[in-house]
């Protein structure tokens, strides 16, 4: 099974995660990093922005995006990442490549994205959050594990989790574009962040240490450099 760093608080989780990113920066000339969206990484983003770090040569990609959403939509992952992170650091605009949810041809956007990731030399670090149903990026339960960037139909549980961000239930997107599990596992290092009581079941599935496509996060059991940082309240009862 994977070693887990149990963080006593959200703040401790954020600082421990920021340490890992900070540690990577001087080791790689132009680090290539995959960024997650969600409540969980916000503290990490704030911690990184507070530290005296330069991201001028870092290349950023995002894990996923709602399909059909334009980058400037208030709920797009593009907007989220700029608001919570990219606008607060010295990132170079040309080094930021985020998925375009409103690309006229989703399939072509996915292929172009994979090409851009390959041209960058693959990921030095993929930072992941965890969905309540065990999804990583938008790879939902039972989605095949051998895919690169692709279009996905969102699970009902995922749509429900995202419901509070939209005025109307009908406004919650039904599909997304996401890096595939094959893309994620190709990263040289993976950092998984787990926080919130809704992640208890998914965390338990991961801690069982058995790969199970009902719980996409368990794909990480096959990777050789994964760091898991989880809130201590997700620790199973002894
Ligand atoms: C969304 C994203 C995932 C993210 C998950 C967890 O579904 N597509 O990449 O990991 O939310 O979000 P939170 O951190 O808000 O629990």
Determine the CATH topology.
Rossmann fold
Level of helix content?
25-40%
> How do the SSEs run, as a string of H and E?
EHEHEEHEHEEHEHEHE
Oligomer: single chain
**Average pLDDT metric:** 97
Q: Unreliable segments (pLDDT under 50, ≥5 consecutive)? A: none
CATH C-level name = Alpha Beta
The description of the largest β-sheet is:
7 strands, parallel
- How are the strands ordered across the major sheet? 1-10-9-6-2-3-5
Class by SSE composition: alpha/beta
What's the alpha carbon Rg, rounded to whole Å? 17 Å
User: How widely separated are the two ends?
Assistant: 17 Å
Organism: Taklimakanibacter albus
Protein name: Glucosamine-6-phosphate deaminase
What does this entry look like structurally?
It is a single chain. With 238 residues, the protein is an alpha/beta fold. The chain has one domain (4-234): Rossmann fold, CATH 3.40.50.1360. The protein has helices at residues 10-24, 42-50, 77-84, 106-120, 156-162, 181-185, 200-208; strands at 4-7, 32-35, 59-62, 64-66, 96-97, 125-128, 150-153, 175-178, 190-194, 226-231. The strands form 2 sheets. A 7-stranded parallel β-sheet has the order 1-10-9-6-2-3-5, with helices on both faces. It has a 3-stranded antiparallel β-sheet with strand order 4-8-7, with helices on one face. Helix 1 (10-24) packs across helix 2. The chain is globular and about 50 Å long. The structure holds 2-amino-2-deoxy-6-O-phosphono-alpha-D-glucopyranose.
């Amino acid at each position: 099974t994977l070693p887990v760093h149990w963080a006593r608080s959200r703040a401790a989780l954020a600082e421990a995660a920021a340490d890992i990113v900070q540690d990577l920066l001087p080791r790689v000339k132009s680090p290539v990093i995959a960024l997650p969206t969600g409540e969980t990484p916000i503290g990490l983003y704030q911690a990184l922005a507070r530290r005296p770090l330069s991201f001028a040569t870092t290349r950023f990609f995002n894990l996923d995006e709602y399909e059909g959403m334009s980058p400037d939509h208030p709920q797009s992952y593009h907007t989220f990442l700029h608001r919570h992170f990219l606008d607060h650091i010295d990132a170079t605009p040309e080094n930021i490549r985020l998925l375009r949810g409103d690309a006229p041809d989703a399939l072509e956007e996915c292929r172009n994205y994979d090409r851009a990731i390959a041209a960058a030399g693959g990921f030095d670090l993929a930072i992941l959050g965890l969905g309540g149903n065990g999804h990583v990026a938008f790879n939902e339960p039972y989605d095949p594990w051998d895919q690169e960037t692709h279009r996905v139909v969102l699970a009902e549980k995922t749509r429900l989790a995202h419901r509070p961000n939209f005025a109307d239930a009908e406004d919650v997107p039904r599909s997304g574009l996401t890096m595939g599990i094959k893309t994620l596992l190709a990263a040289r290092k993976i950092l998984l962040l787990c926080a919130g009581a809704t992640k208890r079941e998914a965390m338990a599935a991961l801690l069982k240490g058995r790969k199970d496509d009902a719980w996409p996060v368990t794909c990480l059991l096959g990777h050789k450099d994964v760091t898991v940082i989880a809130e201590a309240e997700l620790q199973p009862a002894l």
